[in-house]
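Design request, tokens follow.
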């Protein structure tokens, strides 16, 4: 049986590969679809209309248009940190 932490870890790994498919990385369009489907609330509350472009540019460390597994999870960790105060206040 999975622990409380193992289940979300597995879910996030499957999420990455569901959008990356056999490529093993996310394209610009893959990342956009992932963000729209999995982080729609985050995107709706953005005041910066270029937020998605800035996120994608930051994650594409090599400038090759690809977002790898590590970069994708770096984004998720940053989102968790950014949302911490909100979630703690609403616990």
């Amino acid at each position: 049986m999975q622990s409380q932490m193992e289940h979300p870890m597995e879910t996030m790994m499957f999420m990455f590969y569901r959008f990356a498919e056999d490529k093993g990385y996310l394209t610009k369009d893959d990342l956009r679809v992932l963000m729209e489907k999995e982080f729609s609330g985050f995107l709706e509350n953005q005041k910066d209309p270029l937020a998605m472009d800035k996120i994608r540019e930051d994650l594409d460390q090599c400038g090759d248009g690809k977002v790898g597994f590590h970069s994708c999870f770096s984004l998720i960790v940053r989102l968790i940190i950014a949302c911490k105060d909100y979630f703690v206040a609403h616990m």
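Comment from the thread starter after seeing the answer: thanks! Residues 6-89 form a domain with the Recoverin; domain 1 fold (CATH 1.10.238.10).
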